[in-house]
Structures are given as C-alpha cells and as structure tokens.
UniProtKB/TrEMBL annotation:
It comes from the Bacteria. Pfam families: adh_short_C2. Belongs to the short-chain dehydrogenases/reductases (SDR) family. This is SDR family oxidoreductase.
Amino acid sequence: MNTVIVTGAGSGIGLAIATKLASMDFNVVVNDYDGDAAKAAAEKIGGFAVQGDVSNEADVARLVETCLSEYGAPSHLVNNAGHVHQARFVDLEPADFDRMIAVHLRGTFLCSRAVLPHMIARKSGCVVNMASQLGQIGGVELVHYSAAKAGIIGMTKALAREVSIQGVRVNAVAPGPINTPLVRALSEEWRTAKAAELPLGHFGEPEDVAETVAFLCSDSARLYVGQTLSPNSGDVML
C-alpha cells in the first residue's frame, strides 16, 4: 500500500488532499503546525497525525521517523504547508520575509531531503510541491509569498532533473486563488479585485486542487517530471 506524508493537512487544500488520497487507499500521515487540527483531520480520514513546523529540522525528522514507525517508508510526499502575510513591499520587515521563505521554501527543502533517501533506496517515489500562480506572475502586496512560490517551482525543476533517473518523480501544482482559510485571511478588497481578473470569475475549491495532486500521485502521471500543473481559474495560461 502507498504511504503519503501531507504537510499542512489540518485544513484547506492540505485536508482536501489528505482526504482524497485516503479515499484512494493511501496510508496518510497528516502533518500540521496546529496539532489539534492535525489530529482532527487524521481522525476524519483514518490517518496518523504529527504536529510540527516544516521549517524546523528536528520537527521534520520526527515527522519522517513517525511515518517509518507507523507505516514504513513513504512512497509519496506532498509539500503543502503554507503561510500567508499581506503587506506592501516597502512595509515588509525582514522577519516577515524570513518566515515566508522558511515555511514554503525551506520547508519544502527539509521535507524532501528527509524522504528522498528512502525513495531512492527503493527506486520509486513521488514528490508533489505546492506552488502558486503568484510564483509565475507575482502578486501585489505579496512579494515575499510570490518569491517563495517561484523558488518552489525552480526547486521542483532542478530536483526532478536530479532524481528522476533514480525513479523519483517530482512535480508541482500552482493553484490560482482557492477558497481556503489562508486566502480568506487576505483583505476583502484584494479578494474581490482578484476574482474580477479571473476568466472564470471565481475562486476554486480545495477539492479542485486535490484532484490535480491525486493525478500526479497516480501511475497515470508516470510521464510527468518537473512539471507545474495549474488549476487556476484561467489566471495563468501557458
């Protein structure tokens, strides 16, 4: 049976992904910074909860060790943990920038680094990194977020080139605006203006992103390497 670690799975997109993969008979390790949210999600889907901060190396080591003890080596990893903060660039503090990079980019690095030896040893595995369409086009008052997500896209391509020959597929998903607690934390003005820009005229739902992740985690995506798929309501067209 496949085993997946999903970070940031206590709510929103992460919860939808964990739920979808559990329905596909994956063993699911649910990680979240909020331990109570992780526990509730795990109880809902029949998975195992691990509280932890993905930017903390010790927490990540504990997350993978727990997976190994409960289910064995992870066959899949979904780097979904996120953080949002809105401010004009001139008002950004270094701490704001550092925290954004830590959660998104450092977290993706630490989690991937922790699971890859197990995947390489078995010559198979799948990593899906959560990027954003703002990593492709940028976003007003979200410079630090856009930079972190652009870094994830770059990391995905480079890592895919490095480990695909060893049997590990690495891809990314770059959603557009999705109705999640993180997006609802942004200003109503921003959300209204953003919806008006979208060809579909509305935001997506977490389940829309979960379907894309599930595809990349399946054998149907065996030729997808270093790709960025974009359920984004038409915000970016490539």
